[in-house]
């Protein structure tokens, strides 16, 4: 895989291309759709579009690294996650703030969990710390996020809001963060701890997870925004 050209027998390389263009399309879609929703949803759809745009740019670079060298673009992938995952946490805060008074602590707790999760995973993947320790730190951060959106203050504000559209978006997003995000630690565990996943499969797993978790996350917000705006 050193010719620099995409090969028909390279499904992972093809997935990089498909996902990069899907994210560009999703960014354009969310930016256009913000004009048909009520004001309280516009910022949420703008952020959803930014998430797709940032991810698409990084996928262009990751795609080139993979096609030209066959190596895992770990640094580019984590830079992408370091930007887009906190923006996803902002989305939880934004949709709640649109219909209720929300303490800033909700956002900061979600952000703290995100940084712990990503920094632990990155240090483990690049070998700065043992892979097992990185996995444990990452899982602790993820667990903290799950607690906040399922049982913490954010969850309680959502349940008490009485806004069906907000609750629909929030509940869809929290299932993305739980079920959808579970693909990442599974790939990490198999690739770095169990030793059963090679580079192509690991990147394939991460690519599928990004496609589901970034675009799907935004679609939940879009559906809720359009529904609430049409009432």
Number of strands: 0
What fraction of residues sit in β-strands? under 5%
Low-confidence stretches: none
Under CATH, the topology can be stated as Rhopdopsin 7-helix transmembrane proteins
User: How would you characterize the largest beta sheet?
Assistant: none
Distance between the termini: 53 Å
Helix content: over 70%
Order of SSEs, N→C? HHHHHHHHH
Any idea how many domains? 1
> So, CATH architecture?
Up-down Bundle
- Secondary-structure class: mainly alpha
Q: What is the count of helical runs?
A: 9
Tell me the overall shape: globular
The CATH superfamily is known as Rhodopsin 7-helix transmembrane proteins
Mean pLDDT across the residues is 91
CATH class: Mainly Alpha
| Rg over C-alpha atoms, rounded to the nearest angstrom | 18 Å
Overview of the structural elements:
This protein has 231 residues and is mainly alpha-helical. Helix content is 82%, strand content 0%. The protein has nine helices and no strands. The chain has helices at residues 11-33, 39-69, 74-97, 104-126, 131-150, 153-161, 164-180, 183-193, 199-229. Helix 1 runs antiparallel to helix 2 (39-69) and helix 3 runs antiparallel to helix 4. The longest helix is centred in the N-terminal third of the chain and has 31 residues, at 39-69. The protein starts with 10 loop residues before the first helix and ends with a helix.
